Amino acid sequence: MHLEVKEYLPEDGYLEVPQSPKDFCFPFEPYKIQVDFMQNLFEALESGKFGVFQSPTGTGKTLSLLCGALTWLKLDSDRKNSSKVIYNEREPEWMSKQRRDKRFKEREQEATQLQKEYDAWVKAIKKAELQGGLENRKRMFKKQTQLEGVSLMAGDKSTSADTDDILEDYESDNDALTIDDKSEVEKWLKRLQFNCPIIREMRDLGNNNKN
Hints:
Layout: H1 32-47, H2 61-77, H3 79-82, H4 93-163, H5 179-195, H6 197-210
Helix pairs in contact: 1-2
């Protein structure tokens, strides 16, 4: 979006500097130095000039700056009715008024076009933010799915490993354990003792008591 500095022509008229403190909509009775501040600020804005302002500490510079600037903006937005015009003496007044009306009509069209461009810009920004949010959610979902897939694979491996620790089915027909059977049981118990956290904790506690 491209913004241009507003330029004023004689047909636009000029805004008179408010003389009454009430015209600045100050929230309370302003001091003389505050009124001077707002009037000079108003004049600088109307003239399109740069202004350097200085005021002692505690004189409400921020409030004076806001009230002075907002007062000018309010009157400028209704310049057609708020401004005064000095018509050219070399031409009929009706011609000057006609040119003035045409000028303000162009101003309204420019403002309407600028508003449309601004609305389109805001819409594009919101669309980009929404699209960015969707893309982020897609990436998060994909990442979460990948993590869940890895967890499932790890679970399958642990399940298969656990099945190695399961004893064979007991057969009542052969109560007497052979030497090979006893060695298998001992291996399983050692493995269980190593992997079980409760047994491991009890073993460590016993070792500490011995020490």
